[in-house]
Every structure is written in structure tokens, then in C-alpha cells.
Design goal:
The structure is a single chain. With about 290 residues, the protein is α+β, with helices and mostly antiparallel strands. It folds into three domains: about 90 residues, Ribosomal Protein S5, domain 2; about 40 residues, no CATH class; about 140 residues. Helix content is about 60%, strand content about 15%. It is built from eight helices and six strands, in the order E-E-E-H-E-E-H-H-E-H-H-H-H-H. A four-stranded mixed sheet has the order 1-2-4-3. The chain has a two-stranded antiparallel sheet with strand order 5-6. The longest helix has about 70 residues. It is rod-shaped and about 140 Å long. About 20% of the residues are buried.
């Protein structure tokens, strides 16, 4: 089964004191490029994530985003800055004594002072974090690859039909080839006769030369090779996997054969069919650009 290079997958996971979500998307690309968006504290996991992604994807520009929320109790990381509180208390006592100030100091006075509460949040254990990240990433990848395969199936179906159209057109050109050769021979012989009308020539030699030149417009070999490329193209689709580059190469060969057939054709009907071949090859090429 072939896969498209475009896809999207998302997964969420809530586990104990953490909530993680992963978004994976991809677009067409000649190679495999991965762009990571991770919280700074989890950046050491990037190499492991890259290894997981590359185990299932070979081409495409991939965007990976990890959202990470820790739901730790506030009491576990918000602490009283006792050193700052002692300094503030000493300063207040000095102010009251030196300037003979009255009044009591209330708690709300202290709470408005800067740096009285300090946050001491410990880094989440990286090994424990990896267990969560790995699980949610695999779930997102499963949805992501499912979409890519579904899209790939639709693309393969369309491509098979178009390749059958090419094969049918080539068969029609093969049927016209003998007429193309004979017509060219007649035209060439008539032209030679007109040019040599006043000369004494060897008629047998002229027939041989005309026959040799007429054979040059025979496109049988090109049609045989074109059909061979068609079969290889269909076989690659059935084989599945990362076949996009192989399909692109086969299309280049098909286009080359079509150009040769067009150059040799002296029959307008063959020329018209060559135009159809090239148009259809271009449509196939656009579709193949989406295949991994």
C-alpha cells in the first residue's frame, strides 16, 4: 500500500500529574525534514522522537508539536522566602523605632512586598517524562499514518486508471503504426520521383533507400518500452511502500518515449494521441508528487 506525504494526527494523554498532547502534520518534500516544537525542559528527548518518526516515514516535511502541562499542587513549589521576610521585618522595626511610628504590621502588608514568595519548581524527571511522551507520540503517529495510507489508497486508484488510459492509447498508436510507415513510404517515393524525373536511376536502389528511411518512422519499439514502463508503474503501486521516487523516474521514461513517438509520427492521428499521452503523464506526475 502506498502512502501520501500529506497527513495529520493528534493525540492527548493525561497521566497522574501531567497532560500531554502531540500534533503531527506533513507536506510534500523531496527528502525527510522534521521540525520539532518542544518545551525547553524536554528538548533532550528530540533525538528519541526523531528515531521513532523516521521508523515509519521516509519522505516529507514533518511538523511535530508537543504541548506539556504539569498539574502539581501549588504547595509543592511555592515557598516562603524567609530570608526576605526577616529583612522586611527588621526594616519595619527600625522605621518604627527611628521615626516613632505607630500601628501594627498586618499580613497583607507583607504580601504586597516583592520576592516574599519564591517558586522552587523541580524539573520533571526526564525518564518519567519520556514514558508519557513516547506513548502519546505513538498514538498521534498511528492516526497520522492512517490518514496518509487512506489518502495513498485514493491516489493509487486514480493513478491506476490513468495508466490504463495510457496503455489503451499506446495500443491505438500501435494499430496506426503500419499505416504511418506505409503513408510515409508513399509520400517519400513520390517526392523522390518528382526530384529525379529527368534522370536515369536504378529503381530498385530507390526502393531500398525509401524503405530504409520509411522504417525510421516506425514507433513499435517505443510503444513496447512505453508499455513496459506502464507495467512497472502498476507493479510499484501494488508493491507499496516508499515508491514515489521510482514512480517519478518511470514517468520521466514514459515522457521520453512519448516525445520520440511524436517526433517520428507523420500521421496526424498519432500526433493527436501523443498530445493526450503527454497531458496524461503530466497529470500523473502531479499526483505522484504526493506519494511517499
Amino acid at each position: 500500500m502506498v502512502s501520501s506525504m500529506t497527513g495529520y494526527g493528534r493525540a492527548e494523554l493525561v497521566k497522574e500529574d501531567v497532560k500531554a498532547s502531540v500534533d503531527i502534520s506533513s507536506v510534500n518534500n523531496r527528502f525527510c525534514e522534521i521540525q520539532f516544537r518542544l518545551p525547553k525542559s524536554l528538548s533532550p528527548l528530540e533525538s528519541k522522537l526523531k528515531e521513532i518518526i523516521l521508523s515509519t516515514i521516509t519522505r516529507g516535511k514533518i511538523s511535530y508539536t508537543l504541548n506539556w502541562e504539569e498539574s502539581l499542587p501549588l504547595a509543592s513549589y511555592a515557598k516562603l522566602n524567609e530570608e526576605a521576610a526577616d529583612v522586611y521585618q527588621t526594616i519595619i522595626a527600625q522605621l518604627k523605632e527611628k521615626y516613632n511610628l505607630s500601628g501594627e504590621v498586618r499580613v497583607d502588608h507583607f504580601l504586597n512586598l516583592p520576592d516574599l514568595i519564591k517558586v522552587e519548581k523541580e524539573e520533571y524527571d526526564i525518564d518519567k517524562a519520556w514514558e508519557v511522551v513516547n506513548e502519546v507520540t505513538l498514538k498521534a503517529l498511528e492516526e497520522f499514518n492512517s490518514m496518509r495510507k487512506s489518502e495513498g489508497t485514493r491516489l493509487a486508484s486514480d493513478l491506476k486508471q490513468r495508466v490504463k488510459n495510457l496503455d489503451r492509447t499506446i495500443s491505438e498508436i500501435e494499430d496506426l503504426t503500419p499505416l504511418n510507415v506505409n503513408n510515409y513510404r508513399k509520400k517519400l517515393k513520390l517526392r523522390v520521383s518528382e526530384l529525379l524525373a529527368d534522370m536515369v536511376v536504378d529503381e530498385q536502389r530507390i526502393e531500398q533507400e525509401v524503405a530504409l528511411m520509411a522504417e525510421k518512422c516506425d514507433v513499435t519499439e517505443e510503444c513496447v518500452r512505453f508499455k513496459s514502463h506502464n507495467q512497472q508503474f502498476l507493479s510499484a503501486l501494488e508493491e507499496g511502500g516508499p515508491v514515489g521516487k521510482r514512480l517519478t523516474f518511470l514517468l520521466q521514461e514514459m515522457n521520453r518515449e512519448a516525445n520520440t513517438i511524436g517526433a517520428k509520427a507523420s500521421d496526424a492521428r498519432i500526433s493527436q494521441k501523443v498530445i493526450f499521452l503527454k497531458e496524461e503523464i503530466e497529470k500523473i506526475r502531479e499526483q505522484v508528487q504526493n506519494i511517499e
